[in-house]
């Protein structure tokens, strides 16, 4: 009978005298351990203390060499302080974008051993839901908007159709549509959003959502073949288009039936409602604690510094690859600057009512007074079934950019200075060969293969013998160790700028 109870998960209670004997046994064991250590210290003296100190330092040193996600998981175990409430509990991460240097897209070779930086970010932030609609790297380069780029191609072709290319060779731009075609079958931002909005809404809905938009790399790749002025004009249009789509997702996030919805007010206490639903709460509490619509946009890295630029097709005379390289470097900086400016303008809207919210058939969320039950501010005639509705301001728009550029440039600068035998006041050029973020080869990819792009020869798909010696795994994607570092920097930036523990 007792065996059956044990197998069902029950435990027999010990008699009082048996429990007392058990406690006495444990007391004797602890007393023996204390006596043993006291005698060791007494006899060993300073030598024992030095050995103990050395052991502790060795453990800490080894822990520092673990990968980021292992450090993060073990930090929960060895944290001796009272745990701090986690403001990004029940977090969802949704990713839109194109393949970038940190591997936003799925690996072209289908390898499950390699993760994108967004997947690593999800793990570092303990996100509960991860959704990525970024196409696989095998489909080819993804643009922000096929319609915008296609329209630009047609406009340029129409403007030069009557040009005499013999008298003005620079007017020969037929190579643009051949080298940098517009493929409407590859999902751009609009197609990715449409796909996301057809997905079933998660049950239960997440409390927070971090929206990631990783576009621009292949827009710069294409636009660098055009004039610099035309490239800047197109970037202005593309970035404005991106933020118009972000605002569309913002509106969708207000609809409880939409997959974009986040239930910030689930399990909210009356104190939370009184403190955070007040229309004046933005001036009284840290705005990161309010209901936020959070976005993360990574900065673009100069694609001319990647091995894939070496196999870029040469344009016909008088156009040159060097001219395109200068354009790409300039347009990358212009893109980042424009994105920073538009992100600031967008976040300054704060909790403003979004335009077009009526066309989405979403009822306006009206603010009530602080400190009173939300039921009192229901519209007259509502029944008790609606008593759990919380009337609050619109979600606050918040966003940040991840500083991946500095991390990558620092790695490349270190190796360049090491080869030249130089060292600066910041210590660059002096890292030991065993440093965690040292890569002896920052130019040659470990795997010559990569993205599927017409007219470009990637060579074999045989992996090198020492992948960790190469900064680039293939011609366009970084080593997994570098990707993990980029994700760690992004996680730090997101925690600091977009979230705050109470």
Write down the oligomeric state.
single chain
**Largest sheet, described in full?**
5 strands, parallel
Rg estimate, integer Å: 29 Å
Strands side by side in the biggest sheet: 2-1-3-4-5
Shape type? flat
Helix content: 40-55%
Overall number of strands: 5
Indicate the proportion of strand residues.
Answer: 5-15%
Keywords: Membrane, Transmembrane, Transmembrane helix
Transmembrane segments: 48-66
Walk me through what this model shows.
The chain is flat, with a radius of gyration of 29 Å. The chain has 502 residues and is of the alpha/beta class. β4, α12 (321-347) and β5 (396-402) form a beta-alpha-beta unit. It has a domain at 91-404 and 478-498. It has a five-stranded parallel sheet with strand order 2-1-3-4-5, with helices on both faces. The longest helix is centred in the first third of the chain and has 29 residues, at 16-44. The protein is built from 14 helices and five strands.
């Amino acid at each position: 009978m007792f065996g059956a109870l044990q197998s069902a998960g029950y435990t027999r209670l010990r008699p009082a005298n048996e429990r007392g004997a058990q406690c006495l046994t444990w007391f004797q064991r602890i007393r023996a351990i204390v006596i043993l250590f006291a005698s060791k210290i007494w006899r060993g003296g300073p030598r024992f203390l030095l050995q103990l100190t050395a052991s502790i330092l060795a453990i800490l040193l080894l822990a520092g060499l673990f990968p980021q996600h292992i450090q993060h998981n073990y930090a929960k175990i060895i944290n001796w302080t009272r745990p701090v409430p986690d403001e990004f509990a029940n977090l969802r991460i949704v990713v839109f974008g194109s393949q970038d240097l940190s591997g936003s897209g799925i690996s072209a070779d289908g390898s499950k051993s390699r993760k994108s930086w967004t997947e690593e970010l999800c793990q570092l932030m303990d996100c509960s839901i991860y959704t990525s609609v970024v196409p696989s790297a095998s489909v080819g380069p993804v643009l922000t908007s096929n319609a915008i780029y296609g329209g630009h191609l047609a406009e340029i072709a129409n403007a030069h159709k009557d040009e005499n290319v013999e008298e003005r060779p620079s007017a020969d731009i037929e190579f643009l549509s051949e080298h940098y075609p517009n493929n409407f079958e590859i999902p751009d931002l609009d197609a990715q959003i449409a796909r996301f909005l057809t997905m079933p809404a998660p049950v239960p809905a997440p409390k927070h959502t971090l929206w990631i938009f990783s576009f621009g790399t292949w827009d710069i790749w294409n636009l660098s073949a055009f004039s610099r002025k035309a490239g800047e004009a197109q970037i202005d249009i593309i970035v404005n288009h991106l933020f118009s789509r972000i605002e569309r997702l913002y509106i969708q996030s207000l609809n409880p039936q939409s997959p974009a919805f986040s239930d910030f007010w689930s399990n909210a206490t009356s104190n939370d409602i009184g403190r955070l639903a007040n229309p004046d709460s933005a001036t009284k509490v840290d705005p990161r604690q309010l209901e936020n619509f959070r976005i993360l946009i990574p900065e673009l890295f100069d694609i001319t510094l990647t091995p894939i630029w070496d196999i870029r097709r040469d344009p016909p005379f008088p156009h040159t690859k060097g001219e395109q390289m200068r354009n790409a470097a300039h347009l990358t900086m212009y893109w980042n600057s424009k994105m920073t400016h538009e992100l600031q303008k967008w976040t300054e809207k704060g909790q403003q009512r979004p335009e077009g919210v009526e066309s989405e058939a979403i009822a306006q969320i009206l603010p009530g007074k602080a400190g009173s039950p939300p039921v009192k501010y229901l519209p007259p005639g509502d029944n008790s079934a609606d008593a759990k509705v919380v009337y609050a301001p619109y979600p606050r728009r918040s966003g940040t950019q991840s500083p991946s550029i500095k991390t990558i440039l620092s790695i490349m600068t270190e190796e360049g200075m090491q080869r030249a035998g130089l060292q600066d006041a910041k210590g660059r050029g002096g890292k030991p060969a065993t440093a965690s973020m040292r890569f002896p080869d920052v130019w040659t990819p470990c795997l010559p293969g990569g993205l599927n792009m017409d007219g470009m020869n990637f060579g074999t798909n045989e992996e090198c013998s020492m992948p960790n010696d190469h900064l680039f795994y293939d011609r366009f994607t970084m080593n997994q160790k570098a990707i993990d570092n980029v994700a760690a920097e992004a996680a730090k930036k997101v925690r600091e700028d977009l979230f705050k523990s109470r």
